[in-house]
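User: I'm writing a short report section on ligand binding and want a predicted complex to refer to. Could you take this sequence and coproporphyrinogen III and write out the structure as tokens? A short remark afterwards would be nice.
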Amino acid sequence: MESHERAVMRVLAGEKLERPPIWMMRQAGRYLPEYRAERAKAPNFLDFCYNTDLATEVTLQPIRRYGFDAAILFSDIFVVPDALGYPVNFEEGRGPVLEPLSIEQVEKLDQARTMEHLAPVIATVERLRAELPTETTLLGFCGAPWTVACYSVAGHTTQDQVAARIGSYKDPALLTAFIDQLVEASITYLVAQLDGGADALQIFDTWAGVLDDIGFEQWSVGPTRKIVDGVKAQRPNAKIIGFPKASAARLKRYVEGTGVDAVGLDWTVPAEVAQEIQKIVPVQGNMDPMRLVAGGRALETGIDHALEVLGNGPHIFNLGHGVVPQTPPEHVAEMVKRVKGL
Ligand code: CP3
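Assistant: Sure. The structure tokens for the complex follow:
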């Protein structure tokens, strides 16, 4: 079967399907007991990401269990700064911690070592394409430079990314220097994922929504455009989904400014905004992941609402952000059944 026949790829090409294909952000994760069992084999999270056997296995788990229409490569957005030589640490119970940004750190970054460092991730992509069912789309991804940089300016996750925003105003040259490095490495990495067998790509900009108008253009749209252009200059047929979280009012600007082929909607995007955007590009989303935790009527209502609002155009069913660890796995099975009309 040709890759353009995969349901997710058909939607990305602009087709409206009778039933939308479905996958879930963070579908390989701690809500699954079989994920936790594999995860226990590699105490360091980055080592886990770089272990081709383990990463392949956990990527396949949700496909086997639920038959999702797309698999997303198991990795993390921080493998890119790690590959460049930027100090990244995952602390138990605290999440990722990056060394605070400084010109000394940026000057030490080395593009030449990036792909050698990321070779195990590309090997995972190759293994996945060989092992996945032919009808399953394989998605590669990277973090948007602003979102990656947020964790380095602040050193860790902070509410509203106050430190990153102050840093962007006080020393835009430093942030630009770091982001330029991330852009270059991300282009190389995404092209390698495509060459390894990824069918399409997603760029996660989880923190786009904290920026003011000027910052949104400067730090989210601008660098994302460079990545999209850079990838497409080398692989003109590449399909790229952008996910600028909490940016409902700026989605049109984001889509037109970045050149992405489709856009992920978070759960706060209003129906009328989603439908306007869907006239320009295919959309992905956007049920609140907490409905999936709650289950029952709340889940059914959320699914039906998304299907109704987005059902008249090209739509890939997804959550408005990642599935959370406390989600009961049986709720996910119920969601897939209902979306598929079974
Ligand atoms: O979607 C998938 O299943 C693919 C894998 C994937 C992970 N992270 C695995 C992961 C993807 C696409 C990401 C993206 C990512 N990582 C983003 C952007 C999307 C988003 O969710 O906002 C961001 C901001 C990160 C950074 C990150 N990684 C944080 C803040 C954390 C800690 C919080 C948490 O959920 O634990 C991680 C760790 C991480 N990345 C886990 C997984 C499954 C959990 C780590 C573990 O198993 O111990």
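A remark for your report: The chain has one domain: 18-263. The domain at 18-263 is CATH 3.20.20.210 (TIM Barrel).
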